[in-house]
Amino acid sequence: MPDLSQIVKAYDIRGVVPDQWDEALARLFGAAFVEVTGADAIVVGHDMRPSSPGLSRAFARGAAERGADVTEIGLCSTDQLYFASGQLDLPGAMFTASHNPARYNGIKLCRAGAAPVGQDTGLGEIRELVESWAESGPPATDAPAGSLTARDVLDDYAAYLRGLVDIGGIRPLRVVVDAGNGMGGHTVPTVFDGLPLTLDAMYFELDGTFPNHEANPLDPANIVDLQQRVRETGADLGLAFDGDADRCFVVDERGEPVSPSAITALVASRELAKHRGGTIIHNCITSHSVPEVVAEAGGTAVRTRVGHSFIKAEMARTGAIFGGEHSAHYYFRDFWNADTGMLAALHVLAALGGQQGPLSGLVAEYDRYASSGEINSTVEDQAGRLSAVEETYADREGVSLDRLDGLTVTGPDWWFNIRASNTEPLLRLNVEAKDEEGVRRVREEVLALVRA
Predict the structure, then answer these.
(1) In Å, how far from its chain's centre is CA 219?
(2) Which class would CATH give 4-152?
(3) Which of 218, 250, 421, 444 has the greatest number of beta carbons closer than 10 A?
(4) Dist. CA 37–CA 18, nearest whole Å
């Protein structure tokens, strides 16, 4: 039995195949998932990685052996799996390692209605069961074996998303999409079909070895091709999806990246126009533009910790209509509180196509401050360095501190957040200020303390 502590993470299962896990282990995970959820039916999908079909089928067989009927939707994006879980009201399993290199694979699990499964909501129990079955396998059951049924939900997924955003009447737009050889190459053609868009498709061939670049648009190196194509062709905007196509990044007509915080604010304003007085969730690293825009639009902004489990929990607790993160995860009440980059992309297209100006002008209203982006520092004594930063700022006049997630320090016209990584000896710093000089000043002072 491999060391499951290395692959069962806080929110998912992820590791190198076959070194850390394989189809035999996937089968046990399928059986344990059914035991923990008590499900008599589940839905399973997978991405384009070479190992995904075999792992997905092994999981499905393990689930069926415990008596669950399994609907296999085959190739899909992660948000397409969430759609199936919500629409069919079934627990689900998505086989993907998102933007990780080709040798990795993983499982994202959810309960019926796309409700998240994490370490404290079932994933820990699943791990314990699998570990207990290491020697002799799952105990015998009197339940008859479940069935395996194939079902294609791509058209239904596309129709559902397009029913949430009125995009048919927009002006014609030219859009470049970089799918990174990931699942965006599967979903975008169907979702965009028939819309007033000229689609310039980059790297739409499904290839889990990622021959062109990593499918991680958060790394600036991976959107260089997209930026160049937008500039060369005079496109109205560019979109980049990560490997499992649940995140979407945007570049404007100049090829300049649009901050996910600005997209969060833009989509929040559109959702608040439909749902007056609604609640918007944002994490503690998103720009202060977000709560400002929400307040101006008559909504209530609720700040939470980084991570989809915290966002989804707050959305459920508050009845929020929308949530956004700095990492380009966007969550919608109308999508079972799950994240879907595709729906966010449709909102951007609708907003841009509903007026005559360029995207850079449109998002300027929502991008009000200068920011550093995330800066990582390798630090062995994370707690000690955090304490040093806290002590330095604790008694400064006009400065406030909070520990909602790591340490956030807020001054008169700047703020920063510094958090420890859960998996690496890193401290992650994000700085925002009214201008670039303010960002530089705060960044240098904090990094001097962190890297002392």
Answers:
(1) 14
(2) alpha beta
(3) 250
(4) 27
Burial of 347 (0-12, 13-18, 19+ CB in 10 A): buried
Binned at pLDDT 50, 70 and 90, residue 10 comes out as confident
- Above 90 in pLDDT, residue 447? yes
Are residues 285 and 418 in contact, defined by beta-carbon separation less than 8 angstroms?
no
Active site residue 98: yes
* Distance (Å, whole) CA 128 – CA 81: 25
Helix, strand or coil for residue 282? Answer: strand
Give residue limits of the domains in the chain.
4-152, 156-254, 260-364, 371-450
Domain 260-364 bears CATH identifier 3.40.50.20: no
Report the distance separating Cα 330 and Cα 346, nearest Å.
12
Q: What angle do CA 442, 444, 450 make, to 5 degrees?
A: 100
Q: Determine the 3-state secondary structure of 358 from DSSP.
A: coil
| DSSP-based three-state secondary structure for 136 | coil
Please tell me whether the overall predicted TM-score, pTM, comes out greater than 0.90 for this model: yes
Asked if 249 and 299 touch (Cβ cutoff 8 Å), the reply is no
Residue 2's pLDDT is 81
Q: In this model, does residue 81 exceed pLDDT 90?
A: yes
Domain made up of 371-450: CATH architecture: 2-Layer Sandwich (3.30)
Degrees to nearest 5, angle at CA 314 with 309 and 316: 95
- Domain spanning 156-254 has what CATH number? 3.40.120.10
Instruction: Given the residues 51, 56, 98, 259, select the one marked as catalytic.
Output: 98
Residue-wise DSSP of 310-352: HHHHHHHHHT-SEEE-TTS-EEEGGGTT-B-HHHHHHHHHHHH
User: How confident is the model over 127-183, as pLDDT tens digits?
Assistant: 999 999 988 889 998 889 999 999 999 999 999 999 999 998 999 999 999 999 999
Cβ burial of 405 (10 Å; 0-12, 13-18, 19+) is middle
Identify any residues that bridge with 43 across adjacent strands, giving them in sequence order: 71, 92
How does pLDDT run across 211-240, given as a tens digit for each residue?
999 999 999 999 999 999 999 999 999 999
**156-254 matches 260-364 in fold:** yes
pLDDT at 231: 98
Contact 329, 312 (CB under 8 A): no
Task: Please name the amino acid found at residue 413.
Answer: D
Residue pair 148/155 in contact by the 8 Å Cβ criterion = no
Under 8 Å between Cβ of 386 and 409: no
